[in-house]
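Handout, page 2. Input:
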Amino acid sequence: MKLICIGRNYINHINELKNEKPSDPVVFIKPDTAILLKKQPFFIPDYSKNIQHEVEVIVKINRVGKYIETKFAHKYYDHIGLGIDFTARDLQQKLKASGLPWEKAKAFDGSAVVGKWAPKSTFESLENLSFSLKKNDVVVQSGNTQQMLWGIDAVIAYVSQFFTLKIGDIIFTGTPAGVGQVQAGDILKGYIENEEFFNIKVK
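Output:
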């Protein structure tokens, strides 16, 4: 399985990092080794001095698909969840400045938190879904899927043009503003609406 990640999908996050608004979704890949193992802490890697949290709504693909039309994309997932795309921001900035790929900053071991899954039928509307991240019980990121430049179904349709989607693939749909650095000892808790989807410790 693979993790397909969408960057720059919330305008307030684009602005906070002083990036340009893209004309198409920004797409990058994480390998399955990026998934943080269940009940394990996140260990800050020694090659970065600025690991930042990016909380994101995630979806799990339930059937094989290619060249999916947006109107049919809803058939390709039954569950949604919440995750974190950990980013070595200092390394990413260095790579970007050199015109190099981001993988070392985005796809390292443990860089993807995948919380619990919930049936999408649990929620009244996936186009108006509130989610948040608390760091040490203080809300540091909050967003709503209605703020996305490209909604979940549009993202699935877009990425399926380039990659065959397979059962178990996970799509990270982008992060709102409020990304910030994590430190050893931090406790990170993620919520969709008022329900907790993950709780991890940083070491």
